[in-house]
Design a protein that fits this description.
- The chain has helices spanning about 45-55, 80-100, 105-110, 125-195, 200-215, 215-230, 240-260, 265-285, and strands at about 5-15, 20-25, 30-35, 60-70, 80, 115-120.
- It is α+β, with helices and mostly antiparallel strands and about 290 residues long.
- The protein is elongated and about 105 Å long.
- It has a four-stranded mixed sheet with strand order 1-2-4-3, covered by helices on one side. A two-stranded antiparallel sheet has the order 5-6.
- The longest helix is centred in the middle third of the chain and has 70 residues, at about 125-195.
- It folds into three domains: about 5-75 and about 130-145, Ribosomal Protein S5, domain 2 (2-Layer Sandwich), CATH 3.30.230.10; about 80-110, no CATH class; about 150-285, no CATH class.
- A hairpin with a 2-residue loop joins strand 1 and strand 2 (about 20-25).
- The chain contains eight helices and six strands.
Length: about 290
């Protein structure tokens, strides 16, 4: 079943420790890229966020944003790790002595350093556990939305596959008449030139002309690729790259038919084919 790579989900939980809110959104990408955005006091969750996302998703750029608002009645919501601050200042002094530059870090820079600001009066292990559990809820919602959106994309692609199959069938039906018109055009030109050609050589030239116009193999491959697209869309696994390859193959066959075309009607049909293939390709870019 096709899954879209574009989706959004939100999950929140209100507890004694405060409020936790996850917002996760994904867009199309060649592989899975997880971008956690976490409060400083919960930065230790980052490896866990990547692991949880990797268990559920295979492709897509995933933005995971967590907001944490400690409970208002929590004693001293934040505290400063003064020991770490002193270590940072001492390190800056040593660097200044070596370089001869007095450029101590500003207070705001120190406060942004990981671990300087700590939550106090909170069981942060418990908060992390609840945040991880809540992330699972948000990811489940994201996966479900990707599934629904993927189903819509699959319907659109299948409809265009059916239109392509109808065009291939139309080409099969009209090819005998196209080849006959090609023979007649050659004979008409020879008649105008009043050329006296050997009948055997003329027939050989006409056979070669028909062979050059023959697109049976291309039509067979188009049918096979279209059947494969329909089959792949039913698979319960990541299918985006496989579909992308099939779109390239469909486009290759349509271009070959167009290059062999010496008939305006056939050329018009190949243009319609390529439009449908491009529409499918755009949808495929968003499938996991």
């Amino acid at each position: 079943m096709a899954n879209s790579m574009t989706a959004f989900a939100r999950a929140e939980r209100h507890g004694d420790h405060g409020d936790l809110v996850w917002e996760v959104r994904s867009v199309n990408h060649r592989y899975l890229e997880v971008l956690p955005r976490l409060p400083e006091e919960l930065r230790a969750l980052e490896p866990r966020v990547r692991e949880q996302a990797g268990r559920r998703l295979r492709r897509g750029k995933l933005d995971c944003a967590l907001r944490f608002q400690p409970a208002s009645d929590a004693p001293e919501a934040l505290r400063v790790n003064l020991r770490l601050v002193e270590q940072l200042i001492d390190a800056a002094d040593r660097i200044a002595a070596r370089t001869g530059r007095d450029d101590r870090p500003a207070t705001a820079d120190l406060l942004r350093w990981p671990g300087v600001i700590e939550a106090a009066g909170q069981d942060m292990d418990r908060v992390q556990s609840e945040a991880a559990a809540l992330l699972d809820t948000a990811l489940a919602g994201l996966v479900e939305m990707r599934r629904r959106e993927g189903g819509k994309l699959a319907v659109m692609i299948l409809e265009r596959c059916r239109q392509m199959q109808a065009l291939v069938a139309e080409v099969r039906t009209m090819m005998p008449a196209i080849q006959q018109r090609g023979r007649e055009r050659v004979l008409a030109r020879l008649a105008v030139l009043n050329a006296d050609l050997d009948p055997d050589r003329l027939e050989q030239a006409l056979v070669q002309l028909v062979q050059k116009m023959d697109v049976d193999e291309e039509q067979d491959r188009l049918d096979a690729h279209l059947d494969e697209v329909c089959r792949v869309l039913e698979l319960d696994e990541p299918i985006g790259r496989r579909l992308d390859f099939l779109m390239q193959e469909l486009n290759r066959e349509a271009n070959t038919i167009a290059s062999k075309s010496a008939d305006a009607e056939l050329t018009a049909i190949t243009v319609r084919m390529k439009v449908l293939i491009e529409q499918m390709r755009e949808q495929v870019q968003n499938i996991e």
